[in-house]
Specification:
two-stranded antiparallel sheet, 77% helix
Length: 500
């Protein structure tokens, strides 16, 4: 950790704190040209000779006896806050904000230490950049409320210290908007992103990479709200400008094409999605190579579109290639490998190959639990997919038990309004329907429909789907007036969408 912090190229906003950290790391082994392991080992040996520190060779960790903790807390009372701030800062500097598996697992180990430190410090004493790094640790653990609080703290401090228009302030605003995204708070995310985009256009110009990134994030937010007519022109502007500024074969250009293709898939414009995804796949193969992670991801996107088109054999064949390449390039436990395994399992399920799908879903769920924890959203998502498989197998009690557990955890971790929570509620309603518990079905479907109206719109495809499901249940119960009213709304929106 100390070596990683010493080698970090990140500069803090607080220059005095930067000097204090540099001085402390210098005593431990930081040099102008790098890091001295010999100096660090001499410090550790000197501390060990006085029984102030112990080294666990098996786990490769250092520990301090509780009595030493107590002594230092009472003896260093006057400087305790400074020392805690220095340690928190070193922790923040010891990792990057990249998303490899090693980065992710390292940050998970830091959660307990950062929680103990940050709760004992005054918010105004912590550097904004440190706050943003610590927020990433909470974000990895999907403790989004704490993530939001830390990011808002950093944003407000940067506004005071640097001004509303400073690039670092705008980055902080983007970080907050990203967390709102994770919480399904699309309107809040949109409001911040509009401010960021306006300021970047004014300061940096329309063609600056940061402006284009902000424009794309705003388009993503419109897409999630089902505001296709607002999202599509933004995607086209970003794509064309990136082609012009960066070139047709730049990874950022590919990213915009992929996001546009995802929107087409959500709209049901599967031929348009396929056309873009084929182009991206061929270009990434040529530019990056067949085995590059971005190429593998482009193959996965195309396979998913094949699945939506009902071309299950083609999807199956491509997903098998994706899974094998992911294992070879990234490893069996990499998140992208597990996603590929889940996608293949989904295709097997759609083909009716439930006995092939189930063990894959079980494996994904168990690996997600092992790597991420029982309550991580990706673990819960895997549990939800496994429960649907149980439902399709006619194992309704097994499905119900898993769906109830998943629903309660999703509500607690993600919130009542998150799309995955609502999807799981709809799946539980399907299970209750087959069990003959129609009153429970109505309660769940009404809750899902009202939430989707509130979060998306009456005409959003997901809202219309929930209306159709509820109308079918009303018919089963003999509530024909309620059923016909909903069916009429659905039909009107479909006519309007189709332009008829």
């Amino acid at each position: 950790m100390f070596e990683k912090a010493a080698l970090s190229q990140v500069n803090l906003d607080n220059s005095e704190l930067q000097d204090e950290v540099t001085n402390l790391l210098g005593q431990l082994g930081k040099q102008d040209t790098g890091w001295s392991s010999w100096t660090f080992q001499k410090v550790i040996m000197r501390l060990g000779s006085h029984s102030l520190i112990e080294y666990d060779h098996q786990n490769r960790t250092y520990s301090i006896h509780p009595l030493i903790h107590h002594w230092s807390a009472t003896t260093l009372e006057g400087n305790r806050s400074l020392m805690q701030n220095l340690v928190l800062t070193i922790i923040a500097l010891s990792f990057s904000l990249t998303f490899t598996e090693d980065d992710f697992m390292y940050r998970r180990k830091l959660l307990k230490h950062t929680t103990n430190l940050i709760t004992s410090l005054k918010p105004e004493d912590i550097d904004p950049l440190v706050v943003l790094h610590i927020a990433q640790i909470y974000s990895d653990a999907v403790r989004l409320k704490e993530t939001e609080a830390l990011q808002v703290m950093a944003m407000e401090k940067r506004k005071r210290m640097l001004g509303d228009d400073h690039p670092d302030t705008l980055i902080s605003m983007e970080e907050v908007a990203g967390t709102y995204w994770g919480l399904g708070r699309w309107s809040d995310a949109e409001a911040l992103l509009l401010v960021v985009l306006g300021k970047r256009r004014l300061v940096l110009g329309d063609d600056h990479p940061d402006t284009l990134r902000g424009m794309e994030h705003l388009a993503d937010t419109y897409r999630e709200q089902g505001r296709w007519s607002d999202a599509e022109p933004l995607y086209f502007v970003v794509m064309e400008k990136r082609k012009l500024v960066l070139g047709d074969d730049h990874p950022d250009t590919f990213e915009t094409m992929i996001n546009l293709a995802n929107m087409y898939r959500y709209q049901g414009r599967l031929s348009d999605a396929e056309a873009l995804e084929v182009v991206v796949m061929e270009k990434t193969k040529r530019v990056l190579g067949d085995d590059h992670p971005d190429t593998i991801m482009s193959m996965s996107n195309l396979a998913n579109t094949y699945s939506y088109q009902g071309r299950l054999k083609e999807a199956d064949a491509l997903q098998l290639v994706v899974l094998e390449k992911s294992k070879q390039v990234l490893g069996d436990d990499h998140p992208n490998t597990l996603t590929a395994m889940g996608n293949l399992a989904h295709t097997y399920r759609e083909q009716g190959r439930l006995d092939d799908a189930e063990p894959l879903f079980v494996m994904v769920t168990e690996k997600r639990k092992q790597l991420l924890g029982d309550d991580h959203p990706h673990t819960l998502r895997a549990m939800s997919h496994l429960a649907v498989t149980y439902w399709k197998q006619g194992r309704w009690n097994d499905a119900e038990v898993l769906q109830v557990v998943t629903m309660e955890k999703m509500k607690r971790v993600l919130g009542d309004d998150h799309s995955w929570t609502l999807e799981n509620m709809a799946n539980l309603a399907n299970t209750h329907r087959d069990q003959g518990h129609l009153d429970d079905v109505v309660a769940l479907q009404e809750a899902v429909m009202e939430k989707k109206k509130q979060l998306l719109s009456d005409g959003h495809p997901d809202t219309l789907k929930s209306m159709s499901s509820l109308a079918a249940t009303y018919r089963d119960l003999g509530h024909l007036d309620n059923a016909e009213a909903l069916e009429s709304i659905v039909e009107e929106h479909k006519k309007h969408r189709d332009g008829s």
